[in-house]
Input
Amino acid sequence: MDGIPLNDYPRPQMVRNGYLSLNGTWKCCITKHSLKADSQRNITVDTVYEGDIVVPFSPEAQYSGVNHILMPDEAITYNLSFDIQEGFLNEITLIHFDAVDYICEVYLNGNLLTRNEGGYLPFEVDVSSFIKEGTNRLDVIVTDPTDTLSQPRGKQKLKNGGIFYTPISGIWQSVWLETVPKGYVKSIKIDTDIDEKTVTVHADTELDEFFVSVIDKQDVVYQGLCDKDKKIIFKMDNIRMWSPEDPYLYNLEITAGTDVVKSYFGMRKFSIVKDEFGYSRLALNN
Output
């Protein structure tokens, strides 16, 4: 595989500058551990694999370059050295893991940052106190019981076949870093109403206010400050509806202090209506 895999921006509905993808070739080591009652879990009894792995492909995937099913008595240790350019860091720096299966510990420059359990949901770590300009080292240690313990796993099974799939383990979604100012926008919610011809924008920020611009193609058509409830409602004139034939999207720009976030929305509505025979049907845009 050439280049960095999945190198596009990983969160298109909240885009900001100050972003660094950590996908690509990492070092990894898969070790087998003692599980005897009179032994410690961290005693390594064998090294199964040592070499490169392409993140964010799981070690079971061909594209990872490893092609190994991680067993319950094994651990995979990832490490990556990456450089931070002078002037890149803002007041707060976060590392995002979009999915790691299943139990993991995250270290930066030798400091334990967090321990996370779960294979499907993203999580983030504030690394502001530990990251530095120049070279940094990120280590992630992962174990995965798969179907030997009770955990959400879908159809993953160590002895796969029939309706059951080959399990996946470790980092299997993008890893990325972003650096933000204090009071940054943590999340946004966009509600559209084609009947009232409105769009409502909510933003989670520690600041008292934020500013929103609605952009139609390249033109700013609406803009304003949020209210005391940290939301703003725009009345849309001459709206262009979203449809499969014309999937038109408006752009948004949200500013909170020095933080600028870009997003988008479509004016559409899904509903259930009765047809002429009284049957319920799914309807788009009434």
Summary: The chain has two domains: 19-180, 187-268.
